[in-house]
Design a protein that fits this description.
Layout (H helix, E strand, L loop, with lengths): L2 H5 L3 H12 L17 E7 L4 E6 L12 H12 L4 E6 L12 H6 L4
Helix pairs in contact: 2-3
InterPro entries: Fe-S_Maturation_MIP18, FSCA_dom_sf, MIP18-like, SUF_FeS_clus_asmbl-assoc
Protein name: MIP18 family-like domain-containing protein
Pfam families: FeS_assembly_P
Length: about 110
């Protein structure tokens, strides 16, 4: 492998860091992080530009933290992952359902 290739940022590594950062964000009413809840619909990282684009939703459109949670995600990713720029988009389609939750989240919430 050439030195140039070894010096290029790794997209998988950056994505893993971003996911770990997202896992530090919790819905205040649910004791499970938003990643395990299935609230992250899409994640794209640009390791060269050190940027992340995130599409997320909430458990309900009337969620009291609708105005705050995207900012929490942006701050967590920017600070914990070392990403320089983050774009978080709140989307409602498709609507969130419990089917999007990980097995871990379902176990944590006694839903199995």
């Amino acid at each position: 492998m050439s030195t140039t290739t070894m010096d290029l940022p790794d997209a998988e590594e950056l994505e893993a860091k971003v996911i770990e950062a997202i896992k530090t964000v919790y819905d205040p009413e649910i004791p499970v992080n938003i990643y395990e809840l299935g609230l992250i619909y899409n994640l794209e990282v640009d390791p060269i530009g050190n940027h992340a684009d995130i599409q997320m939703t909430l458990t309900a459109p009337g969620c009291p933290v609708a105005g705050s949670m995207p900012e929490w995600v942006e701050n967590a990713v920017r600070h914990l992952a070392g990403v320089e720029s983050v774009n978080v988009e709140l989307v409602w389609d498709p609507p969130w359902s419990t089917e999007r939750m990980s097995m871990r989240a379902k176990l944590e919430l006694n839903m199995l």
